[in-house]
Amino acid sequence: MKNSFIKKSLAFAVAFLCCFLCFGKSKQGKKAELPVWCSSPYALYPQKEFFAASGSAKNKAEAEIRAIETLAGIFGRDVHSENQAQSFMSKNEKNGESAVEISSTLSSRVLTEIDQRDLIGIEIAESFFDAGHNEWYVLAVINKERTGALYENLVERNLRSIAELVEAAEKLPDSFSKIAYFSRAMKLAGLNESYAPRFEVIHPQKFNLVRKKFVSSDSLRIKRDNAAEKIPVSVSVSGCSDDSVLTSCEAVLKGFGIKISDRQFKYRLQLDVARSFRTVQNPPIVYCEYSLSAKMTDKNNSVLMPWTASGRAGGKNEKLAEDKAVLQIKNAVQNDYGSAFSEFLYGEIK
Description:
By secondary structure, the protein is α+β, with helices and mostly antiparallel strands.
C-alpha cells in the first residue's frame, strides 16, 4: 500500500512538472500582438481619404523617417537630404517665400533631416513600441483633402507674389533691381513647379483648377536674362594670374543671367588679391596668407557692393602653399561672394 502511495505521488509530481514546463514554454513563446496598422496601414485610415505608410526601427525618429520615405515612394520620388533641407529652409527665409506649414507631430530629427517640401501634409498618426523586440512602429498619413487645400493655398500665394514682382520689374529701368525682381519671381515659379507632382497625386481636382494659372519659371528666366543683357558687367582681377579666379567671379554673375563684357559695360567688378608668404618651424611649413577685396561700381565709380575676405593655406614649399591658396580663393568667390551678391541683389527688392 505504501508503494502504491509513493507511485501515485511520483506520478502526480511528474504530471505537475510537465504542466508547469508546458505552461512556461507557452508563455515564453507568446509574442506581443502588433496593432493592425503595422502591416495594414489603411486599416484605420481609409485609402479614399488618406495616403498611409508604416515604418519600424529601433528608435522612434528613425521609424518616422522610414515611414515618410515609404510615403514618398507613393509619389515616385525620394525625400531630399539634410543639406538640401537646410539649404531650402535658409533660402525660403531669406527670399521671403511662402512659409510651408508643417505638422507639430513630427520629431525634431525629421525636421532637420528631411526637406520641408517633403513634409507638407504629413502627420504621425500612430506609434507603438514593442518592448519584447525593442522595436518602434510608426504610421505616417496624409489627409488628401486637407493637404490639397494646403498646396492650393501655397501655390495661390506664390502666384500673387509672382504677379506683383513681374508688374514691378516691368516698370523699372534696366538695372540690378530689375534682375532681382525677375529672379525672385522665377524662384517662386520654380517652387510651384516643385509642388506640382505631389499636389496632382494628392488632390487632382484642386490641382487641375490651379494648374491653368501656373507661370513657367523658364518664361521668367527669359525675361530676367533679357533685362540682364542690357546691363553688362566688366570683371577684372589683380594680384592673381590664375584665370580660374577670374572665371569664378564671372560665374557668380552669369548665374543671374548677367552678361560679361570688357568693351561696353554699365558696371565694373574689381577683385584685388594680396598675398604674402610666411615660414614656420617645427615642423617646417610655408603659409600663403591672402586677403581679398572686391567692389562693384557703376560708371560714376560709386561703390554699390563692397566685399572682403582673408585666409591662409599651408604647404611644404611656396608653390604648394600658393596652389592651395588659389583653390581657397576660388571657393571663397564662388560661395561667400556668391551669397553676398545674392543678398545684395535681393536687397534691391522694396
